[in-house]
């Protein structure tokens, strides 16, 4: 299957780095901000010793959904935010301790795979659309989109990372495809990625400028290729590094929390690829920083700034970007509404009309949003529009509020 | 979720581009205002010209080409600058008042509103009326909707129409410039001796709104706005198609000499080119879909021809046509989206 993206825009912030180094972080953390819609119920307290793979918290509403420690060590802090929301559970890592075996028997059926993912804490690697949330433990979907392409500015190239761990990647896709009817593996055209030959696995070769690498683009693009209109059923998507981790779980029985992230920025002289851990403390990845810099976990388009309590690598992020802090002032909205410019259409590859979608999210008109077939969008899908918006409107946050209203049913 | 990098183009930059693109039309119009006054003085209509203009004309020798150019420019500037100052300060005043009462930032749209109004206004507009019209445009057209990005119809257009409807005598008043586009237009139709030549209408040596005379400068500015991505090419394309089709249909059905004129006359005469290039390019009330951009433009062109030809009381129909087309945009968008939904949902 070929998906050609014509509309879009490649931001040129420099080339992504290729020099690879290993960094074992002194601390790792799980952050509440990574899991919107989850109300954490803590299973540990500050001072506890945990093994890698131990449960740190579960979702209050869905207790089978557990979130596990990416490293062994001692819980050094539990930062609570507003309304007792968990900002971060920080583990002081002890790199000497080996990861325990989590999976003792062969997973044969789809249910075995599901149980193994839930118990190991890898289930939250999956996210479902609509609403871009972690699917419930009992939920089922017909389609899974593996995002094995990254077109974000300064993002690492997925191909070498996947090639280096081809067996795990293949195994991960094979296991995940047991959960769904069709598993679409979306990769850059020309990238020859290992992919199991199976009826349920469809490689999709995606070409074009950003947002060609976003799962939303794949979901809408594949639906359009099948002449199905905007997607309406629940679909799942998962990142390529999580697929590798899932493959490693089923091959070796251990939780693999390794992540390769690109650390760079216009002000950082030596950009590099860093092989580290999920949730690693960002300071260890970056090293010494000049003054007046801000550190962003994730893409410059849709990532989030590292706060004082939350300076850790985000759960779904593949990059860390350092920008001059002065750039922040330019991002303030000037109070104007949306200008209906055609430039939004030129960076919008999806079949649904973009300006009505933007207008609907700004007034939080969830009914119109649903009727346009835009429920499968995530905030990151609107980030190029927010980049271009002359009024500096925050379309991503507006979409999140609108989808929340839709989910609550009002 | 806000991006940490932004395209450098801000709302103010977009509006600045519209102002810059309209600058050639404004300069030609300013000169032409003086030029028309000189013609009026030459025709012995000294009584209707403001006194300082008469004195200035008497002091200089308007027969020398270079001098007459300078004289016309000076007269034009002398008439336009006070108008511009009053319009801008009125708009700034309302922007400030609304920013204070709403405890919000000063809205970015005040300059554009006043600027575009001045060039659409009839040359005989008095300062008091300009202040009233800009107040109407700013308050009713801009601020009560919430400012830039939220209004329904261009506030400059509303202000110009305020003069149009509230003070029709300005349009009919013969001087300081024979600003009545009606007379201009009927001359065209009758093929009279003073028929403005096509080149005159193209270059801007004909009477009309202050800045709307030169169709060439307006279309040039419109081209700049399309090239810089501020305006959509579909609106002007639709408008030209509407003009052509409208003129053709009326030519078949009516035998009025007005109806027999080609569509290109409608493009060159009156405020059409200015409204097309700068008012219809306003990105705030612009249609949301590519298809409705065509409809918006086509309605604008078609209604302009229809009003000009069939309604003798509104000989300069383009501003009114643009108002009607603009008011039809939300409905057109709504219907187009309903069709889209019906198509995509089984």
Topology:
The complex is a heterodimer of chains A (410) and B (346).
Chain A (H helix, E strand, L loop, with lengths): L1 E3 L15 E3 L4 E5 L8 E3 L6 E2 L4 E5 L6 E3 L4 E8 L5 E8 L16 H11 L6 E3 L13 E6 L9 H7 L1 H11 L5 E7 L12 E7 L7 H11 L9 E5 H13 L5 E7 L7 E6 L4 H5 L6 E5 L6 E2 L13 E6 L18 H4 L7 H9 L3 H6 L11 H6 L6 H14 L2
Parallel strand pairs in A: 1-13, 2-16, 11-12, 11-14, 12-13, 15-19
Antiparallel strand pairs in A: 3-9, 4-6, 5-8, 6-7, 8-9, 10-14, 15-16, 17-18, 17-19
Chain B lengths: L10 H11 L1 H20 L8 H9 L5 H38 L7 H11 L6 H16 L12 H12 L1 H5 L8 H10 L7 H6 L11 H13 L6 H20 L9 H6 L3 H8 L10 H21 L7 H27 L2
Helix pairs in contact in B: 1-5, 1-11, 2-4, 2-11, 4-5, 4-6, 5-6, 5-7, 6-7, 7-16, 11-14, 12-15, 15-16
Protein described:
The complex is a heterodimer of chains A (410) and B (346). Helices cover 24% and strands 23% of the residues of chain A. Chain A has eleven helices and 19 strands. Chain A has helices at 110-120, 158-164, 166-176, 215-225, 240-252, 282-286, 343-346, 354-362, 366-371, 383-388, 395-408, and strands at 2-4, 20-22, 27-31, 40-42, 49-50, 55-59, 66-68, 73-80, 86-93, 127-129, 143-148, 182-188, 201-207, 235-239, 258-264, 272-277, 293-297, 304-305, 319-324. In chain A, β6 and β7 form a beta hairpin. Chain A is globular and about 55 Å long. Chain B is an all-alpha fold. Helices cover 67% and strands 0% of the residues of chain B. Chain B contains 16 helices and no strands. The longest helix of chain B is centred in the N-terminal third of the chain and has 38 residues, at 65-102. The radius of gyration of chain B is 21 Å and the shape is globular. Chain B starts with 10 loop residues before the first helix and ends with a helix. In chain B, 54% of the residues are buried. Chains A and B meet through β18, α8, α10 and α11 of A and α1 and α16 of B.
